[in-house]
Amino acid sequence: MLIGYARVSTADQDLALQREVLKDTGCQRLYEEKMSGAKRSRPELNRMLEQLRAGDVVVVSRLDRLARSTRDLLEIAEQLKEARAGLRSLHEPWADTTSPAGRMVLTVFAGIAEFERDLIHERTGSGRVAAKARGVRFGRPTKLSGDQIKLAQRLISEGRPVPEVAKILKVHRTTLYRALPS
Is 61 designated active site? Predict the structure, then answer.
């Protein structure tokens, strides 16, 4: 039996395209979830793996829908092998563990995919460092402007309590404490 597995990373993403492709391929059962692939413990993935029978073939639209690392992919492939089931990726036709050549190629390409993700992560990190050097700020915008911080310092130096100054500036006192120089 062909069994489809579809996953998107966040709740606001849509599974419709994956679902349609898997049904068109002939998948008789579908397991779907909206959760990060970085999490190895995914309820629908686990349920699918537990219900596999000999001869079943798990079909995914892309390998990254199933696993995010070589280790994870190889662990899942091993579980499929133990259940005497196969794996087939529609986007990566070389990833078909129903043949010995497919199993070997899958291992090699999974390693290359992980290497590519590592390179992307490295480039992204370098880009962030360069952006910070140019003065780009990341994260949430500050609640208080420089003028507001100066006003807060003046009010506090005049004897007003921090909670009162925070109320005047319409921020939580913790926000004010963080903004004030130590």
Answer: no
Q: Rounded CA gap, 134 and 115, in Å?
A: 29
Of the ranges 37-41, 97-101, 140-144, the best mean pLDDT one: 140-144
Q: Say how far residue 81 (Cα) sits from the centre of its chain.
A: 26
| 8 Å CB contact between 88 and 63 | no
Residue position matching structure tokens 């579980």: 79
Active-site pick, 9, 61, 89, 126: 9
Please name the amino acid found at residue 49.
L
Which of 29-38, 67-76, 135-144, 151-160 shows the lowest mean pLDDT across its residues? 67-76
Assess contact for 4 and 25: CB atoms under 8 A. Answer: yes
Q: What is the mean pLDDT of residues 26-38?
A: 89
What's the token pair of residue 17? 């395209």
Those residues with Cβ within 8 angstroms of residue 22's Cβ, 6 or more apart along the chain or in another chain:
4, 5, 6, 30, 59, 60, 61, 90
* Cα separation, 56 vs 81, whole angstroms: 10
Rounded CA Rg of the chain: 26
Specify the 3-state DSSP secondary structure of 55.
coil
**Residue that has been written with the tokens 């006003």 in this structure:** 151
